[in-house]
Amino acid sequence: MPKHFSPIGHTFLNEALLTAALTHRSKAPECDCRSGEEQDNQRLEFLGDAVLDLVVSEHLFRVRPKLSEGNMSRLRACFVRENRLADIARSLDLGKHLIVSQPEDNSGGRDKNSLLADALEALLGAVFLDAGHEAVKNLVQRLWEPYFVCARTGTPDITDHKTALQEYTQSRGMGLPEYSLANTVGPAHHPTFFINVRIGNRASSTAMAHSKKEAHQLAAKALLKELIEEESSLE
Predict the structure, then answer these.
(1) pTM for this structure?
(2) Active site residue: 45, 118, 121, 130, which one?
(3) Do 8 and 100 sit in the same domain of this protein?
(4) Domain residues for 221?
(5) How far is 27 from 30, CA to CA, in rounded Å?
(6) Which of 40, 45, 49, 118 is catalytic?
(7) d(CA 216, CA 223)
(8) Where residue 106 falls among pLDDT bands split at 50, 70, 90?
């Protein structure tokens, strides 16, 4: 029976690809070359790296038609660097699914940037082999969407979560986010503000901070993450 891997929302027809993508070399058995199957994620990571480069390059080619080749290369590097991949992997809670040796686990391997980034790239390679270019393209578009929306006019480093949320909801016909002050607590010289953000009647999030501006950003960030996860679960 095909294996649905919920963190990325893909059902693997070839479950061996999923197992290999999640297997760190520290845990891989001795390679049996006659089996024809991958024993760990090293080769899949190599393939996934190339697939990611292609999908990101194609995206930038379409949405930034005035960018020079050099600027496209620099912008693409922002999408595919190790800490970016590790952040996305953490948002998927990918670390808990990794198959690693006990010593690697004891040393905190499940939260190492390098292991998380490699595993995510390996999963992209596995999806490519399992279901083809369109499937992995759709997966990258979904997982990288918060960074893609920012890169349409600037760089994929999200510092303005309010703008990212607005672009995300508008691109899906969900309307504009609505913000409101839900509560204020604490002394006048050091108040804590609770800001709520809502998208119509379908979703909302509340965050708190010692400044209204920061609370707005935190609420937007939380709601954007929730919407992306909801979209992923429906695919």
Answers:
(1) 0.67
(2) 121
(3) yes
(4) 161-234
(5) 9
(6) 49
(7) 11
(8) very high
